[in-house]
Amino acid sequence: MSEIISTSAPGKVILFGEHAVVYGFPAIAIAINRRVKVSIIEGNETSKSLFTPDLFPKNQFDLTNEHIIPEQLKAIFFLLKKTKVIERLSYGQQILIKSQIPPSAGLGSSAAISVSLAMLGTILSNQELQLENINKIAFEAEKIQHGTPSGIDNFVSTFGGGVFYLKNSLKRIDLSKISFKIVIINTKVTRNTKDLVLLVKKRYEEKKDYVQELFNEIKTITEQAKVYIEKGNIDKIGELMNENQVALEKLGVGHKKIIEAINILGNEGALGAKLTGAGGGGCVIGIFDSKEESSIAVQKAKEEGFEAFTTEPSKIGVIENGIKKD
Ligand code: PMV
């Protein structure tokens, strides 16, 4: 099966500010070097199909029959239609989505798919490749998938690097002075972002002063972190991650598996560790300045039954991987 064209885009981690960001406080996210790749390939079949081997147990879908497209693929289907990819596919061609990002774990897998597909559609339509436009199209799909997302995931996936998000304004952060390994531990405890956001809302309504105070703490932490990231001071970034974790636990989005994962990271020399994304399960991140220590931490986490891997910040946002001509 030969590849005709492909694009790819990165996942992300939220380093600081999750949950508080929903209430207008700042957050920091960075792209990671785990990516989604989407390609058009010549298949053996006569239909136009979608193949998603890393995402869903049933993984082959006929794109010519909208009525059988399952709910979890609605955003993907929307994009393929909006960008006229389905129209432009020839019968016998297949869209293949391959992902190195665990789905539904807070690592931006859906945004990376949306961004890659938005670029694929733009290339096929021979339109000028404007990243702003790709970001906008992907955001529409994200809204279908997640309701009222902040837009941080698709922004980071489109442009790569780091972003400081505040009240609908996304500003890039200079990552050139920092260098660290990130260990990601997936607790494999399933959680739902929407439910956790609601849980925090309930706490906010019940104990407004207390939660407001926590949000203010998180705001200070996030603002300080921006300065240290730009100065390249990873020890301070680690300390601030630990402080952010304490505030998140007080907010009520912790989990015993998150604590277990953080303890493994701490014992193996992480400079700081915290949950990333909505919490309640999902993924934990720890930063290391030593490659060896980060590899040992991954090993230890796996021995304890977690899924774990190392990654690094990535400057590379969405890219075209090349058009292969016959
Ligand atoms: O777990 P994720 O990647 O869906 O991140 C959720 C981050 C929140 O701040 C909890 C919600 C949001 O919309 O920003």
UniProtKB/TrEMBL annotation:
Pathway: Isoprenoid biosynthesis; isopentenyl diphosphate biosynthesis via mevalonate pathway; isopentenyl diphosphate from (R)-mevalonate: step 1/3
Annotated GHMP kinase N-terminal domain residues: 84-161
GO terms for cellular component: cytosol
Top enzyme category: transferase
Pfam family, one: GHMP_kinases_N
Segment forming the signal sequence: none
Location in the cell: Cytoplasm
The family this protein is said to belong to: Belongs to the GHMP kinase family. Mevalonate kinase subfamily.
Entry protein name: mevalonate kinase
Organism whose genome encodes this protein: Candidatus Heimdallarchaeum endolithica
